[in-house]
Design a protein that fits this description.
The complex is a heterodimer. Chain A is 43% helix and 24% strand. By secondary structure, chain A is of the alpha+beta class. Chain A folds into 3 domains: 40 residues, no CATH class; 64 residues; 80 residues, Pleckstrin-homology domain (PH domain)/Phosphotyrosine-binding domain (PTB) (PH-domain like, Roll), CATH 2.30.29. In chain A, the strands form 3 sheets. A 4-stranded antiparallel beta sheet of chain A has the order 4-5-6-7. In chain A, strands 8-9-10 form a 3-stranded antiparallel beta sheet. Classes of the chains: A alpha+beta, B alpha+beta. β7 of chain A pairs antiparallel with β18 of chain B.
């Protein structure tokens, strides 16, 4: 199938993806002059979004592990209950909990460590930048001038691990930036910094 | 004025009153016959009292509403916080020359809106003019600063070929008509879902009434006749007749619904910077949208409507509920209408024809592959499911039906590929996606208050991301689906220059 890319009415060839790869050696690209505002360095120079600078607290790994544990325990308990009912065909009854234990172990070992590598945050003089998730990752960027509230929260489990999370909301219902698994001192300092930075901005931030 | 409340409340109280009358008959051998009339009298008295105890006051700073006899309630809102003033008049209101004024403050909590029922039409129009004027005047300076994409009347004259018709309305307004409903637009009604929903509702309610009344359908003369007729005919004739009947029912209902909601639709631009919509056949509505709260438009083209070259237009504004009831909600800027008209109206509202006409940038082969993979996986699931069903005893034509989903999925994916695209045009971010419900979103860049870049596992492998612009208006989020990462960053940087600057790097770090 031939796919045609259109940019400001100019038809580009299907070699666009090659262009991306080979842009550094062909800085002029194949783009005509009238689409320059879009096609300049951004499209050709393989610009990428870098990770935010700061990692969260290492204790977050334990916290995520413990938080994911109850769901697996409930599933396993249900299966064990089923296993202890009158026996007739023990084959699948042993296999299913065994598979569950394997899955749970994999999830509990991989997920928190993966999350720890992904969950990052950064505050500059103009913007807040967060990254979260593991299989599905999301990066959120909001300008400080549009920040409306800054909260910090410590749930019971987070208190146990001496952690806190910080939520930065904007006027959009779609865009709260959450940073989970910060240690308390960092969270406190971050809230103070954000409150100070946003108190200077004007307007209703819509 | 005194009549609306009692009539409506009597209507609402009918079930209770019927209960009272029945109870009166049953108790005391007819000695309690007065229960029913007494109930009616109480309802009327209560509603008259409600009317007598409701007062409103409008000062330059505040709008106040006080209600209640035993439990008094006062609602006050700052006049410059008034975002919308809607005037609604039901058939009963109109017979009596009355109208209801709803004052919206952008608060999403229920019960926070101010509702002034049963003002005279003249009072309602005056009140609306006064409220909107004070609200606009109070924030005129900020309006100048924020409404970058909104151009005054000159833009309309240049952009549209509508006859710019000037007229004086209630002595305060100078309006330019942007569009007026053409009765021929009713032809688009059957291609919307409203008729299908209406038919489903009628069938549902009908079957429930039959169930509850305890009458077996076979006992009713006409229905018995109908069943006998159906049984006499061969099955293909029954199916054919049923289909025809259904199509006729849906068509009639959707045309009726369209006419009820949108008859006499007019969209006007007021020189103070607001859009005015009046519409409705029996219940008339007048809706105002302040242009400084307008952040863009959504051009929706559901598949059926697209097939007949129709489209509908909706406003993206802050402080309007995004609800889309049967009549399209208050953010409707144009009912289903010819696509050309929808584009012209959008251009006139935005003050710039470019955003709706611009050629969109496609998202590339990876995004296209993803469309096909996802559609075909869904179809494959159906085939396997139907196969299993047949394996466990279902009739074999199940599999054929499952197989049919494969070509449908391919067509759907191809169409979704064609729809996918984005652009930055002037001050607007333009993004389009979808097939069954294709939508072109035109969002003012100044209204964007942040970016969410989401990548699933498979999107990361394909080098794609879903870039979501968050905003305080409309749906709160407008997504550019499955766009190659460098393209997404270029787009974000072009729409809001400088925000990403600190976080960009020339090489991969992750």
């Amino acid at each position: 199938m031939v796919l045609v890319f259109q940019s400001s009415g100019v038809v580009m060839s299907r070699s666009w993806s090659h262009t991306l790869d080979s842009c550094n050696t062909q800085p002029a690209c194949v783009l005509p002059a009238d689409v320059v505002p879009f096609a300049s360095a951004w499209q050709c120079g393989l610009m990428l979004l870098r990770d935010p600078v700061h990692l969260v607290s290492p204790r977050a790994v334990a916290y995520w592990t413990v938080r994911a544990l109850p769901a697996w325990i409930i599933v396993l308990a249900g299966e064990l209950l089923w296993l202890s009912s009158p026996p007739d065909d023990t084959g699948p009854r042993v296999v299913v909990p065994a598979v569950t234990v394997l899955l749970a172990a994999a999830h509990l070992i991989v997920m928190p460590r993966w999350r720890y590598r992904v969950h990052r945050w950064e505050v500059t003089s103009t913007a807040v930048y967060t990254q979260s998730g593991w299989l599905r990752q999301e990066r959120r960027i909001a300008p400080l001038s549009r920040v409306q509230t800054v909260d910090t929260e410590r749930g019971p489990l987070e208190q146990l691990f001496m952690l806190a999370n910080v939520t930065v909301t904007t006027a959009s219902a779609a865009g709260p930036l959450r940073i989970h698994g910060l240690d308390r001192a960092t969270a406190g300092a971050l809230v103070a910094e954000l409150t100070e930075a946003t108190s200077h901005s004007q307007g209703d931030a819509t | 004025m005194l009549l609306v409340h009692p009539v409506r409340e009597l209507g609402q109280a009918i079930p209770a009153l019927v209960g009272l009358v029945l109870a009166g008959r049953a108790m005391g051998d007819g000695q309690m016959w007065w229960l029913g009339p007494a109930g009616v009298a109480v309802v009327i008295a209560v509603s008259v009292l409600r009317w007598m105890t409701t007062r409103y006051r409008i000062t330059p700073e505040q709008v106040q509403l006080r209600t209640g006899l035993l439990r008094r309630k006062t609602i006050a809102t700052a006049a410059d916080r008034v975002r919308t003033v809607d005037v609604t008049a039901s058939a009963l209101h109109r017979v009596l020359g009355l109208a209801k004024v709803e004052i919206g403050t952008g608060s999403h909590h229920l019960g926070h809106g101010l509702e002034l029922d049963s003002l005279t039409v003249r009072e309602a129009a005056g009140l609306r003019a006064e409220l909107l004027h004070s609200s606009t005047a109070a924030s005129h300076d900020t309006a100048r600063a924020t409404s970058l994409g909104v151009e005054p009347l000159a833009g309309v004259a240049a952009a549209g070929d509508h006859d710019a018709e000037f007229e004086l309305d209630t002595g305060l307004y100078q309006d330019t008509e942007l569009v007026r409903m053409d009765p021929r637009w009713v032809r688009f009604a059957p291609f919307t879902m409203s008729g299908v929903l209406g038919a489903a509702a009628i069938l549902g309610i009908g079957s429930r009434i039959l169930n509850q009344s305890g009458v077996s359908p076979g006992d009713v003369g006409p229905i018995r006749g109908g069943i006998a007729y159906v049984e006499r005919n061969p099955i293909w004739l029954d199916v054919l007749q049923g289909l025809v009947a259904l199509v006729v029912l849906v068509t009639v209902l959707s045309i009726g619904g369209y006419a009820l909601s949108y008859w006499g639709f007019r969209l006007m631009r007021h020189s103070h910077g607001s859009l005015h919509i009046t519409r409705g056949l029996l219940t008339t509505r007048a809706i105002s949208i302040e242009e400084r709260r307008l952040r863009g438009v959504e051009l929706a083209e559901p598949l059926l409507l697209r097939a007949v070259h129709g489209a509908r237009l909706r406003a993206i504004t802050t402080g309007l509920k995004a609800s889309s009831g049967t009549d399209g909600g208050s953010s409707t800027l144009l009912p289903p209408a010819p696509r050309g008209v929808a584009r012209e109206v959008a251009a006139a509202i935005l003050g710039d024809p470019a955003p709706v006409e611009v050629a969109l940038i496609a998202h590339g082969p990876a995004a296209a592959r993803r469309r096909f993979t996802r559609a075909l996986l869904g179809a494959l699931f159906l085939v396997v499911a139907t196969g299993l069903a047949v394996f466990s005893g279902a009739p074999p034509w199940f599999v054929a039906a499952g197989m049919l989903s494969i070509p449908v999925a391919i067509l759907l994916a191809a169409d979704r590929c064609r729809s996918l695209g984005h652009a930055v045009s002037g001050h607007y971010l333009v993004t389009r996606a979808g097939s069954l419900y294709r939508r072109l979103d035109v969002l003012e860049c100044d209204g964007i208050i942040g970016w969410n870049v989401r990548q699933s596992f498979f999107q990361r492998r394909a080098g794609l991301a879903t870039l979501t612009a968050t905003t305080a208006a409309g749906r709160q989020r407008y997504a550019v689906l499955d766009v190659p990462v460098p393209m997404a960053l270029a787009l974000a940087e072009q729409a809001l220059p400088g925000l990403l600057g600190d976080f960009l790097t020339a090489e991969a770090t992750s």
